[in-house]
Amino acid sequence: MLSEIWNVVRYRMRALFDRDALDRELDEELRFHLEREAERHEHAGLSREDALRRAEAEFGRLDSIKEASRRARGTVALDSMFQDLRGNPRTVGVACAIAATGLGLAYMTAAGAPALYLAINVLALLMGLALYGLLRPHAGEAPLLPGGVTLAFGAVLLATTLFGVSVEGASRWIRIAGVSVQISLVLLPTMLVAFARQRDILSTLGVILGAVALALQPDRAMAGVLASALAVLVVRRRDLWVGSALGIAATGFAVTLLRPDTLPAVPYVDKILYTAFEVHVMAGLAVVCGTVLLAFPAIPGRKLGSGNGDACAVFGTLWLGIVVAAAAGNYPTPLVGYGGSAVVGYVLSLAFLPGPVRSTAAVQSRARDEQPAEKGTVFDLRIGIV
After folding, report:
1. Based on the domain organization, do 242 and 376 belong to the same domain?
2. Whose CA, among 24, 43, 77, 88, lies 20 to 30 Å from 132?
3. In the Cβ-directed half-sphere of 333, how many Cα atoms lie within 13 Å?
4. Tell me: the pLDDT tens digits for 89-121?
5. Whole-angstrom distance, CA of residue 254 vs CA of residue 210
6. How many CB atoms lie within 10 A of CB 264?
C-alpha cells in the first residue's frame, strides 16, 4: 500500500517538475507501439507505408493521446496557471513588486529599522497597486500615455529642480505630508515605458525636459538610467524621436558626471546590497533576491517584436540600471530598501507594460485541454501503470 502511494506521489512530482522527460518517455512508448502494430500489418502483406497508415488509424490521433496523458497527470490546471504567469508581463510584475517589497520588509525588520519605514513602504505598495488597478485595462492592450501627460511629467521634474527640497546641493525631492518623495523614481519609469510604446512630438519633448531636469538637479543615477534606456530603444526601434531624446539625455548624463556626488549614504536606503549581509546572511539574501526580481517582467517581452517588446526591454533596462546605481554609489535600493518613491514608480510603470503574451501554440494547446479526452486509446494502458 505504501509503495503504491509513493509511486503515485513520485509520478505527480515528476509530472510537475520534469514534464519534458515524461513527454519524451511517452513519445518513445507511442512510437514503440506504433512500430509493433505496423510490423504486424506488414507481416499480413501490406506495404510499409500502408502498414503505418493502418496503424496510425487504429491508434487514433497521437496528439489526442498525448493530451490525455497530460490530463491524467493531474497538473493541467497548474501548468495553465504557470503558462499564464509566464506570458503576462503585468502579472509577473505585480507578483515581483509584492515579493520584492515583502523581502525588503523582512530585511528592515531584521535590521531594526523604525516601524515608520516599514509602514511607508507598505502604504506605497498599496497606493501603487490602487493606481495600477485604475489604469490597467480589464483585457487587451495596456493604456497609452498621451504625449501631453508625458510633457507634464517632464515639467514636474523640472519644477522639482527649481522649487524642490535641496540636500547637499541636489534638488530631487518634494515634501508630501512630511515625507520626502523623489519624483524622478515615481514618474520617469512610467514616462519611458509609455514612450517605448508610443512616441510623438509632445512625449519626446517631455522626455527631453526630464533629461534637462535630471542634469540640473543633478541626479546622476537617473540621468544614466534614462540614457541607457533610450540607447536600448534606439537599437530596437530607430526613429527621429528616440534619437533626438537620446542625444540630449546622453549630454545631460555627461553633465552630471562633471559634478561631484556628495550625498552621504542613508541607513536602510543606500548601500544595503552590502550592509544587509552584516545584519544576517538571510537578510542579505532577501535584499539580493528582491533586487533580482525587479527585471523579471521584461522576460516575457522577448516573445514580442513590436512596440510591446520595446516596452519590456526598456522596463528591464530601467530597473536593472537603478539597481546597478544602488550597488555602485549612494543611491536608494529600489523596493527592498526604505523609500516609497521607487515602490510607487515600479508598480505604476507596470500598468503601461503590454498585456498577456499568447502564442498560437499556446492557444491551440489550451483549446485541446478543454476538449474531452478520447476513450479507448492505447494510452489507457499507460494510466494504469502509475
Report:
1. no
2. 77
3. 33
4. 888 899 999 999 999 999 999 999 999 999 999
5. 15
6. 8
How much is the pTM?
Answer: 0.73
How far apart (Å, rounded) are the C-alpha atoms in residues 88 and 115? 34
Q: How large is the C-alpha radius of gyration of the chain?
A: 27
- Do residues 66 and 179 both lie within one domain? no
Tell whether 47 and 182 lie within a shared domain.
no
Residues 72 and 95 in one domain: no
H helices present in the chain, as ranges: 2-17, 19-43, 48-59, 62-72, 76-86, 89-111, 115-135, 147-163, 183-197, 201-216, 220-236, 240-257, 272-279, 281-293, 307-328, 340-350, 360-369, 379-383
Residues 17/27, Cβ–Cβ less than 8 Å: no
Q: 26 and 136 share a domain?
A: no
- What are the tens digits of pLDDT across the range 302-319? 665 555 788 999 999 999
5 grid coordinates: 502511494
Residue 238 lies in a domain: yes
CA 266 to centroid of chain Cα atoms: 28
Angle between helices 19-43 and 48-59 (to 10 degrees): 130
| Contact of 191 with 145, CB cutoff 8 Å | yes
Q: Name the residue range of residue 157's domain.
A: 90-350
Dihedral sign, Cα of residue 333, residue 336, residue 340, residue 346: positive
Q: How far is CA 358 from CA 108, 136, 193, 325, 354, in A?
A: 39, 18, 21, 34, 11
Q: Calculate helix-pair angle for 307-328, 220-236, nearest 10 degrees.
A: 150
pLDDT at residue number 33: 76
Q: Do the bridges between strand 165-167 and strand 179-182 make them parallel or antiparallel, or are there none, so unpaired?
A: unpaired
At a CB cut-off of 8 Å and minimum separation 6, what does 326 contact? 221, 270, 271, 272, 273, 291, 332, 333, 334, 337
Helix axes 340-350, 183-197, angle to 10 degrees: 10
Residues in the chain: 386
Q: Is residue 359 part of a domain?
A: no
Instruction: Return the exposure string of 336-364: e unless at least 16 CB atoms fall within 10 Å of the residue's CB, then b.
Output: bbbbbbbbbbbbbbbbbbbbbbeeeebee
